[in-house]
Design goal:
The chain is an alpha+beta fold. The chain has one domain. It has eight helices and six strands. Strands 4-3-2-1-5-6 form a six-stranded antiparallel sheet, with helices on both faces. The longest helix is centred in the middle third of the chain and has 29 residues. The protein is globular.
Length: 245
């Protein structure tokens, strides 16, 4: 794992473990800067389900790291959870392009519309060069809800990735302790993938492979896992990092 992701993970993990306030959690963390660019999405809400707080970081080579704390009401598990994965090349390029279109999160992203329901504090962070070149910038913007279409899509995407990670940890638990419950979980995952509520299935490919190849599993579960595996696209990034926004 690249050194910068290790350091980002350490900082994120420390903040999550300490349970500090949202105001502190969502400041730009002083981490060692990689040679390229990276994007971070953070979420924090004590009523959030399945996660009450999490952060996802992605660099321009597709190296991604997730760190989160689950909602104990949702799963009975309020411990922290972390995972590294490689983002698909298509989505890697997509989020950096959306970041460029969103002016690298410079300025206020919060909607001015009144009476918007609270859905958790989100923060988007960018480190890297802008389209104009020059020195790398460090920008961050927090919001509950944004009317910016590019920010909305980034929010949807990162929340869908967090949902995928949650499915992975729950499938792993049920594979060990509750195989009868896998049928409903896999069906739900398949439905949510079809409706784009989960993204980056390759992040949970290992547990799907276990289920698909286990001769002791119910046939329907193996079939569903195999169908999900077939939908996973290529994740190998090109030899050169993403074109700098």
């Amino acid at each position: 794992m690249p050194l910068w992701i290790t350091r980002v993970a350490v900082v994120i993990g420390f903040l999550v473990a300490c349970g500090i306030s949202a105001q502190v959690l969502h400041e730009v963390s002083p981490v060692a800067q990689p040679a390229g660019s990276y994007i971070v999405f953070k979420f924090d809400w004590d009523q959030g389900r399945p996660w009450v707080k999490y952060a996802i970081s992605v660099d321009d080579a597709g190296n991604a790291h997730f760190e989160g704390v689950g909602n104990p009401v949702d799963s009975g598990d309020g411990d922290s959870f972390s995972q590294d994965f490689t983002m698909s090349d298509a989505n890697r390029q997509k989020i950096f392009e959306l970041t460029k279109k969103a002016d690298y999160f410079q300025g206020d992203l919060e909607s001015k519309v009144k009476n918007i329901a609270k859905t958790g504090q989100k923060t988007l962070i960018y480190h890297g060069k802008t389209a104009t070149g020059g020195q790398a910038v460090n920008t961050a913007a927090a919001y509950n809800y944004s009317t910016n279409a590019d920010v909305q899509e980034l929010t949807r995407f990162f929340q869908a990735v967090a949902t995928t990670i949650d499915f992975g940890r729950k499938l792993a638990f049920q594979y060990r302790f509750d195989k009868l419950g896998l049928d409903a979980r896999l069906y739900s995952l398949q439905e949510m993938y079809t409706t784009h509520f989960v993204e980056e299935l390759q992040a949970i490919e290992p547990i799907l492979q276990k289920i698909a190849s286990d001769p002791n599993m119910m046939h329907i579960n193996r079939v569903t896992a195999k169908q999900l595996l077939k939908s996973i696209g290529p994740t190998v990034a090109p030899s050169q990092p993403a074109t700098q926004p």
